[in-house]
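--- STAGE predict ---
source: upstream dedup step, 1 unique chain passed
mode: sequence only
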Amino acid sequence: MSGTKTPSGSGEKTHSELLELEYAKEVLRSAEFTEEEKKVEARVVRKIDMVVMPLVTLLFLLNFIDRAAVGNANIAGLSKDLHLSTARYDYNVALMVFYIFYTISEIPSNLIMKKVGSKWISILTIGFGIVTISSAFMKNFAQFVVIRALLGMFEGGGLPGIAFLLSRFYRRHELVLRIGIFLALGPSLSGAFGGLLAGALVSGTTIGSVVGWRKIFLVEGIMTTGVGLLSMLIIPDKPDNARFLNEEERAIAIRRLAAEQLGATKAEKTNSKIIKRAMTSLFTWLCVLGFGFMNIPVQGTGLFLPTIVKTLGTYSSVEANLRTVPPYVVATAWSIAVAYGCFKTRKHGYWIAGSVSLSCIGYIIFITSRNNKVLYGATFLTYSGAVPCGPIFLAWATTNAAPETARAVTTAMVTGFASYGSVVATWAYLAKTAPRYVPGNTLNVAVTAATVFLSLAMVAYIKWENKQREEGKRDHRLEGLSPDEAVQLGSQHPSFRYML
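--- STAGE serialize ---
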């Protein structure tokens, strides 16, 4: 919240004005820290960063490694060994099935997490680790489809669950840096590490009866399951029961959130009104649209970059996997830099527009150039420019959602419904369009250009909406409400201000 609107005028205050005044008093009370308390708050943030961030980053890294392993396995012979038909697009169909089940699992998963706590993330991690192990023993197309469906169901709750967990610990303006970090490290480092690991496993010795690409799934699945089991013991839930904070630190952690999200630390019951309000938020749907646009180039890169790189020269599958590593490493550094810029400036839309412009330029190069060295260089632009934008859309939606139930639904909506972009990505780079892949690259020029205009339009919308609230044109929402009901309006409260 960037500020509150105080009632004006003289004489007897209306019901709406009294509620807004109570709202403002509560926010100001929560925000008033002494100098000593500010030092404690800084210590609290450092502790959260040291405990929560490494764990959730590792869990999402494994989530994305397991999801994207199919791309590395495919160039190592998966399609051939499973007798997948190019004419029937069997490989693309199986990839699409993953995202369908991924999407439908997200909102139910986050509502379950709100009820049972953050150990739900660990349960999901164990689940998709076991499914990844099972992938090593697939024999045909039918089994491939079933495995991808199960993987989608377990992995679907991971990203929104982590974003929801972070919203329980960080202030609104702090979220973009933290979400940006784990989402940047997830896809980018998983691509780099996955490429290195795949190259080593495919060319290495057999593991019992498991050979070739099957070793990728077996080893990565065992790693994921083990980490998931360990995380059950250490993953925190909320500031008020975080074992790594002492009593004084827990009190400060709770107050600092209440300063921006009135009622965020209160255990409001999940009800249909809040869920409906969250699911009909225009701003959230705009973030869904933008995140979906970004999923097309980002997920497409994760699934097809090894295949694309292989067409740029006479490379073996191992050499192609290794050449995917540098673009991922550069994208990681750029993503963290952009997230930090958002954090410091407290502006989201402008950074999205600037970064995605680089991706658009890269795809134009893909279409217009025939020099393999230039095309390989363009992979750095296309991926680096797009990767930060999805996390920023997610953080932007989360930071502008309240109360807690609305944030649970919002994080799941953005990551879930935005998977339409991932479904499109599975069809963007068909084998028959190699080596130029003109249809896929043209599509990515279109969606990256559209994202530039969308993000700037969203900034304009937020400025307009905040002005409406400043002028009292949303005060009617408080009429007839009790103080508790007014608090549950969350981001729809007239005193709530959207962040740019």
